[in-house]
Amino acid sequence: MIGKKKKKKGQLIVLSGPSGVGKSTVIAELMGERRGDIYFSVSFTTRAPRVGEADGVNYNFVTREEFEEMIVRDELLEHAEYVGNYYGTSLKVIQDKLNAGIDVLLDIEVQGAAKVRAKCPEAVLIFIIPPSFEELSRRLHGRATDQEDVIAGRLEKAREEYQHIPSYDYLVVNDKVSEAAAEILSILKAEDCRTRNRLHLIDDI
Amino acid sequence: MIGKKKKKKGQLIVLSGPSGVGKSTVIAELMGERRGDIYFSVSFTTRAPRVGEADGVNYNFVTREEFEEMIVRDELLEHAEYVGNYYGTSLKVIQDKLNAGIDVLLDIEVQGAAKVRAKCPEAVLIFIIPPSFEELSRRLHGRATDQEDVIAGRLEKAREEYQHIPSYDYLVVNDKVSEAAAEILSILKAEDCRTRNRLHLIDDI
Fold first, then answer.
1. Strands, E, within chain A: which ranges?
2. What is the pLDDT of residues A140-194, one digit of tens each?
3. What is the DSSP letter of A19?
4. Could you tell me if A155 lies within 8 Å of chain B, comparing CB atoms?
5. Dihedral of CA B25/B18/A2/B166: which sign?
6. Average pLDDT value for chain A
């Protein structure tokens, strides 16, 4: 049996879901409930900021040249191209947080999630879906930040992403944001109770 | 993708833990919180009822002869001998509940749990431990229903049971009953979110 003093590592949590499903809103609710004791990993991207998005908050916005340099220097846990833009996650920041016992939340798409799974088999992968595909279409149109052809591209992409759902550990439906966040909180609490994460609590007998 | 109409089966939940850890109290709290929408499987046993225990509530108390007939007729999901007495679980009752979409909770010891796991790989196995071994000893002495040699036997048995903890999915510490019950509720909610239990929620796209 493992002794009591072993420090608990943080959990690596991956959230994916189609564009328009409301991930950002669910994440905001989640972070509020956990009072900031989860570190939300801010991804790097080459896409243009949307209205209201801030550099270093929603994403670290970089140029294509800067992003490709990070790839060359092997500074990314994962990166992927999505609807013509790069998205990626800094490796060092995440390792430091996990080693300090802090849970880390990644908001990444299916290609990136598969890479994280390959590198960190103990990562918890959660996929968020809308109540229905029609509802997803309604939400994308309601957002009104994208052109019709971009929306059509996102819906087509969503269809592809759905094929990857069986690789995810958990599936959460974002019908009401508070309920989706509550389900994710339960998942994180349950994962914390996993035997492999708690062997340090057992007496040496 | 699987269509929407597939009926969800109930979850089979196995709770184990050393004698004296407070399983019954945690289970009572749990059943209260879930307002009776979990079916608690009442085991059959040949051990004598303790003060306050009622037939059909805590256990179905039967004779050694009656129990051995059930074994011969293959009517048990699992059965085991524990501190000189038989304990077992009726197969048919549980199957009916699970097929009706009702979660079923089993309070069984490590041998029985291993048999359930072998027959139902999708069962959720939870082991409950006390905050420390000294605390377990205190609780057993505080219960004052058993003789000293019986208590010594239960502590020795607990040491053996601890060796089986790595076969369990989850480990819950019963320090405060309400917190242990809350953790188990989170585990059940999370298990309900498992992708394999939710494929029926995905649109046919």
1. 12-16, 38-40, 44-45, 60-61, 76-82, 85-90, 103-107, 124-129, 170-173
2. 888 767 788 888 998 999 999 999 999 999 999 999 999 999 999 999 999 999 9
3. T
4. no
5. negative
6. 90
Write out the two tokens for A22: 């409301």
DSSP sequence for B126-185: EEEE-S-HHHHHHHHHHH--S-HHHHHHHHHHHHHHHTTGGGSSEEEE-SSHHHHHHHHH
Give whole-number Cα distances, B197 to A79, A170, B9, B202, B203, in Å.
30, 9, 8, 11, 15
Identity of the residue numbered A98: L
Q: How many CB atoms lie within 10 A of CB B16?
A: 25
Residue type at B72?
V
Neighbouring C-beta atoms of residue A124, cutoff 10 Å? 22
Closest CA in chain A for residue B127: A195
Closest CA to B89 of B40, B44, B38, B59: B44
The phi, psi pair for B54, rounded to 5°, reads: -120, 145
**Between chains, do A171 and B183 touch, taking CB under 8 Å as contact?**
no
Model pLDDT for residues B100-113, shown as the tens digit of each residue: 999 999 998 898 89
The answer to whether the CB of A16 falls within 8 A of the CB of A128 is: yes
List, in order, residues 6 or more apart from B49 with CB less than 8 Å away: B55, B58, B59, B61
Distance from CA of B27 to the nearest CA of A (A): 17
- Distance of alpha carbon A12 from alpha carbon A166, whole angstroms: 19
- Which tens digits make up the pLDDT trace of B78-92? 998 878 999 999 998
Q: Which amino acid is at B135?
A: E
* C-alpha B93: how far from chain center: 15
User: Does the CB of B157 have a partner CB in chain A at under 8 Å?
Assistant: no
ipTM: 0.84
Residue B187, min C-alpha distance to chain A (Å): 5
Torsion sign (Cα): A90, A95, A101, A103: positive
Bridge partners, A12 (sequence order): A104
Q: How far apart are CA A8 and CA A11, in angstroms?
A: 9
- Check CB contact under 8 Å for A195 and B166: yes
**Res A205: pLDDT:** 66
Residue from B36, B11, B2, B14 nearest B194 by CA: B11
